[in-house]
Amino acid sequence: MVIYTNPEPLNYPQDATITDVLFRHNLNDTPDQKPAIIDGISGEVVFTYATFRESVRKVARHLRHEVGVKEGAVVGILSTNKNYYPICVHAILAVGGVVSALNPLYEPNELAHALGLSEPAHVLAEEALLPKLVAALGTLPSLFEKPSLHVWDTAESEPGVYAALDVESIIQNGVADFQPPRYAPGTAAKKLAFICFSSGTSGLVKGVKLSHGNIVSNIFQQSQGLRGMFTPQTVVALIVPFFHVLGLAGFCCQYVCQGAPIVTFKRFEVGPLMEAVNKYSITHINVVPPIALELLRNSAAQGEYPSVKCLINAAAPLNQRQADQLCEKFGCVVTQWYGMTEASPSIASQRENEVEIPGTIGRLLPGIEMRIVDEDFNDARVGEFAIRGPNIMQGYVDSGKRSDSPHTPDGFLRTGDIGHVDENGYLYIVDRAKEMIKVKGNQVAPAELEAILITHPRVTDAAVCGIYNEHGTSEMPVGYITTDVQGGEEQQLLKDDVLKHVHSQVSRYKQITGGLHVLHAIPRNPAGKILRRLLPAKLQAANRSSVPSRL
């Protein structure tokens, strides 16, 4: 059995909670008066590190004594980005509660599914989202125990519907006399901290159980593996939502506990972001592919931004051409980060001095072990990544139960990502296991073809999926592109040229024999992952399979 690791041993407090790290550890000797949260629009230093910790104590005390949040209770948060969002996350954790961050973009039926999985005792909600929340709760079975609702951006309660939880007033006028619960030795790290929701690109979301030990280990894995990247001298722009695992575990926990000031935005807008970059000397920006493309195309991003050192791409691959264009435009480096909700979330990342190695997602973080396996879980040179470590989730929530585990008997979790490792320990991802196209017994990676398609100078985005031939004996790759070329005849000439461009670089069985089509936009989720099930060929195949047979 071949197991890949980072040679550096992981050193971290193995029986600590996230609250312990926030209150008792100071990873980078961050001064109390260093800004922790800066409002990206007003420029106000909303919290220093001293007032951040004090505010957590105030809100935690209120949650314990006034709201009645008990140890082990799940507390949902349904809100867009607020400056006090991370305060409430840490306050819930500090009283021994479990945070379930809900997506404010969910429709009521999607929200009802997430609520049914996490079973919150309380939900803290933004007032504007209350109608959606009430509608979602109304669709749940009568046996479902409804949570108490607390609106956190109003001072007025509505009896019988919700109670006001005026967080800003609590932070300003509350009492900071609070002590977290004490746990028996050997139990703190096992306590559940988060129920996060996976991306659900192929169906309804899954609830992912992350413990305090999972998150704490990943904070130290990042701190050691990317030593010097996130410090009090770093200023990070938050343009991802707090409810996403990158916002929840990344910004609320990783960056806060490492002392890196965060500049917050309610939503991603190029103009306000770029104004803030120069005003507040932002050094690092976390991006996903759609945001990266917008930074390349939007005229509001024109200018000089000398403070920017690094763009960190996450959630989905960014092709090398776009990465190079971003480097040239901003005079910075673009690093690739690899992780998943189930890993709390970081697995591997490029350091800023490793960007000259094309195509890699970096090396494993300390404390993570990885195998590369085939379908039978035997060692393979190119195969599926399976990972093991203290940051790997406890399991999935299943129909309200929190005890199921997807791990193998020896503790490895299959990621679904296909790739390989070079002789220096750098990881390369080829594709997703479930998205591989099988052409006459050969496996074709859509990502490989997409990477070639996007190198054509007139192609702006691309996606590939597989469909069966008319005999149903083999799959064929089908390609989709976006382009600025207009007109039917011109587009046909372009498609012919693009196919020649691709086919000259791949084996015969990898050729796009199912056709090449022009779309207005490639369907992607908010994190930038291609939604292949929404590509026209997949939709047509699904429609055909759903038509009842006639005898």
From TrEMBL:
UniProt keyword annotations, A-Z: Ligase
At the top level of its lineage, which domain of life is listed? Eukaryota
Domain AMP-binding enzyme C-terminal residues, every copy: 448-529
State the similarity comment.
Belongs to the ATP-dependent AMP-binding enzyme family.
Q: What is the lineage of its organism?
A: Eukaryota, Fungi, Dikarya, Ascomycota, Pezizomycotina
GO MF terms listed in the record are: CoA-ligase activity
Q: Which Gene3D superfamilies match?
A: 3.30.300.30, N-terminal domain of ligase-like (3.40.50.12780)
- Matching Pfam families, A to Z? AMP-binding, AMP-binding_C
Which InterPro entries does this entry report, sorted A to Z? AMP-bd_C, AMP-bd_C_sf, AMP-binding_CS, AMP-dep_synth/lig_dom, ANL_N_sf
What is the official name of this protein in its record?
Answer: 4-coumarate-CoA ligase
Presence of the UniProt keyword ATP-binding in the record:
no
Q: Which residues form the AMP-dependent synthetase/ligase domain?
A: 23-396
